[in-house]
What does this fold into?
Amino acid sequence: MLASRGIHDLVICPTSSTKGTMLATASADQMVRIWWAPCMSVVCLAELPGHADQVTQLAWSSISRCLASTSLDKTVRIWTCDNAAPCAWSCQAKLTGHSGRVTALRFVQEGTQIVTGSTDSTLRIWCCASWKCIKILQGHKSLVTVVDCSGDGQLVASASGDGCCCVWDLAEGALKHKLQADSGGVTSCRFIPDRQSTTTNVLATAHYDRQRNQVECFCGTLQ
It folds into this structure.
C-alpha cells in the first residue's frame, strides 16, 4: 500500500527490471517519493524533499533513472540516483523561469530535452545537458493544461484553457498548427503512432463543450 498523503500523480519507471517495478509519487505534502514494488509488496525507497508547495506532476526519462517533478511553487526539479544505490537520490537541478505554476511536463524522446507548460500561458524547452531554458514558446492566451511530444521528437503539442491545441516545431520553436475547439478549454492532447507511415503524426485532442455539456474527442493526421 502506498502510504503517502494526497497523491497527485504516480508514474512507473520505464527502465524497471524483471525483479520489480520502480514507482514515483507526487504528493500534497511537498514530497516526491520513490517506491520499489517486487511481486505483491511495495516499499518506500526514498523521500525527496525540496519543493516549497504541493508536488503536482512527475515524468521519467525514457533512457535513465532521471525523474522530473513540478510543483505549485512554480519550479521543476530534476532528481537522479546511482543505479548501484537505488535509495540514494539527489536533486540535480532546479528549473526556474515560469512566472506561474507549472502545469504540464514531458521528456522529449531519448531524454535530451524537457518541455514544460504553465499558467503563465507559455511553454519552455529545457536542455537536459545543461538544464538551461533554450526556447520560450508563446501563442496561448490561457494556462497550458497538457503537453506531449511526437514519437520522432520533432513536434510538441500543447493543450490550453483558451480552447486551442497548438503544434510546434521543436527544433525551430515555431508554431505549425493551431487547432481551435468549438467551445471550452482543451483538456488533453496526445500523439498516436501511425503504423502505416513514418512521416505523418496522428494527434488526438479532447475538450469540454460547454454548449452541449459534454466532452468531445477528435483525432486527425498532421502532415
Remarks:
- The longest strand covers residues 85-95.
- DSSP finds no helices and 19 strands in the chain.
- Residues 122 and 139 are 7 Å apart (CA to CA).
- The chain has a mean pLDDT of 86.
